[in-house]
């Protein structure tokens, strides 16, 4: 049995595997930016307007 019942880690887990599992869990727990809709259009428009002042960025 594991120390805590909510810990799904196997007994033969190496320290590196544990660190990776904890890191991925922390990344997935982060708040994600909104997708689609007005927010996405605003971000796209901001990126396009910023590149107009950089002629070397176009082909």
Could you outline the blueprint of secondary structure elements for this entry?
Layout: H1 15-29, H2 37-51
Number of strands: 0
Radius of gyration of CA atoms, rounded to a whole number: 22 Å
Helix content: 40-55%
What's the story with the biggest beta sheet?
none
Short description:
With 59 residues, the chain is mainly α. The protein has helices spanning 15-29, 37-51. The termini are far apart.
Entry keywords:
single chain, 59 residues, mainly alpha, 2 helices, elongated
Architecture overview:
This protein has 59 residues and is mainly α. The protein contains two helices and no strands. It has helices at residues 15-29, 37-51. The termini are far apart. The mean pLDDT is 77.
């Amino acid at each position: 049995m594991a120390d805590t019942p909510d810990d799904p880690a196997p007994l033969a887990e190496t320290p590196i595997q544990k660190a990776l599992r904890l890191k991925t869990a922390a990344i997935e727990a982060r708040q994600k930016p909104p997708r689609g809709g007005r927010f996405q259009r605003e971000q796209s428009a901001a990126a396009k307007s910023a590149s107009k002042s950089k002629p070397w960025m176009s082909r």
